[in-house]
Amino acid sequence: MESGTTARAMMLVEPRHFTDTKVTARDDDEGGWLAVEATGISGADVQVWKGDAREIVYPLVPGNEVVGRIAVKGPNVPFDVGTRVVVEPRIRCGTCRRCVQNLATCRSRRPSNSYGMIPSIEPPGLWGGLAERMYLDPNAHLHELTDDVPAEVATFVHPLASGHTWAVELPALKKGDNVLILGPGPRGLACLIAAKAAGAGWVGITGLSHDRDRLDLATSLGADLAINAEERDLAGEIAGALGQRPDVVVDVTADDPEAVFTALDLVRSGGRVILASTKGNRAFHFLSDVIVAKQLTLKGAVGATNVGYQWATNQVATDPRIDNLVSHQFPLTESSRALQAAAGDLGREELISVAVTF
Ligand SMILES: [Zn+2]
Predict the structure, then answer these.
(1) Whether residue 2 has pLDDT greater than 60
(2) Are strands 84-87 and 133-136 parallel, antiparallel or unpaired?
(3) Which of 1, 24, 42, 327 is most buried, judging by how many CB atoms fall within 10 Å of its CB?
(4) How many A from CA of 66 to the centre of ligand 1?
(5) What whole-number distance in Å separates Cα of residue 269 and Cα of residue 209?
(6) Domain 159-300 class, CATH top level
């Protein structure tokens, strides 16, 4: 972008209140600029929009599942102008203790190191995908993506990368392992695709009554069991379908504390449980003895790894089924409706995932 030019941005000035603004962006000796093509709306974006996310400073430009083209190549950008890339949400300095320990939550940037959650008061102000331009921090991680994939479909690289990290990398999934996924949202469906691609022997997925269309899609994506947890007895159904307990359970539910108990209860002795969903910072009564008695391994998951992104960019380019996973598209000016849709406020029928396209 030329110095002093402006970009249209949907600025979230307070929860549930966007203003359509123009932000003047200046060139920078260190970073670059992305011309945004499409931005997926994640569960984290919905939390920011509702005011439920922690340590958020408004105003800001939301959107952390970003796809676009290099508009200005900063000194650290390894791609030419015009190259299509996905931008990893987490900006990591690479040198702080957390980065050295390979954790997602770099401490060099407060209050958040994730695109879509950085206050616009931080120069140059455009830190989210709901704007025509997004700043490419010198520490941003970019992955080149083929031009063949429609932009809205390309946003699914982000959930898909998380699915690979959570269902394959963190539980060290082996061929033939049996996996149960709690929650059929975009990241739950991504866990299913990744686990199957990695050779899982059996993959089941659970949802609620309003998830019917997502559970139907899970079946068409190859789920061995897709089940409404509100209507059916999970333990009984899984025992009937699988004949044993799953080796791995991944909690990808939306803000459901009960899912932790379900995961610990249903996994086999010696199994692995991946917790990838927060519970709104609420305290709840917790019986740890089951972890000891069943000799379980528990891991908490935040975001996707570089390996997850590499796998996902390749998968999106080669797996035509991903086209069905982005069900709703909105233009930038209808960002409020996009957030409402992703939150389920416009109804859950046929809702899989939502993207804003430019
Ligand atoms: Zn760091």
Answers:
(1) no
(2) unpaired
(3) 42
(4) 21
(5) 29
(6) alpha beta
Instruction: Inform me whether the pLDDT recorded for 80 exceeds 70.
Output: yes
CA of 111 from ligand 1 middle (Å) equals: 13
Please name the amino acid found at residue 46: V
Distance 137 CA to ligand 1 centre (A): 13
Largest CA distance in the chain: 65
> Does the pLDDT at position 241 exceed 80?
yes
Mean of pLDDT values over 297-326? 96
91 CA to middle of ligand 1, Å?
Answer: 8
How far, in Å, is the centroid of ligand 1 from the Cα of 308? 19
Q: How far away, in angstroms, is 203 Cα from ligand 1 center?
A: 35
Question: Cα of 97 to ligand 1 centre, how many Å?
Answer: 7
What mean pLDDT is predicted for residues 82-98?
A: 96
Centre of ligand 1 from the C-alpha of residue 302, in Å: 15
**Could you tell me the distance, in angstroms and rounded to a whole number, from the CA of residue 108 to the centre of ligand 1?**
5
Q: Helix 306-318 crosses helix 186-197 at what angle (to 10 degrees)? A: 80
Pairing of the two strands 328-331 and 297-300: unpaired
Supply the pTM of this predicted model. 0.96
In tens, the pLDDT along 59-78 reads 999 999 999 999 999 898 99
Distance from the alpha carbon of residue 96 to the mean position of ligand 1, in angstroms = 4
Domain residue extents for the chain: 5-155+326-357, 159-300
Considering the domain 5-155+326-357, what is its CATH architecture? Answer: Alpha-Beta Complex (3.90)
Q: Give, for 264, the enclosing helix (H) or strand (E).
A: helix 258-266
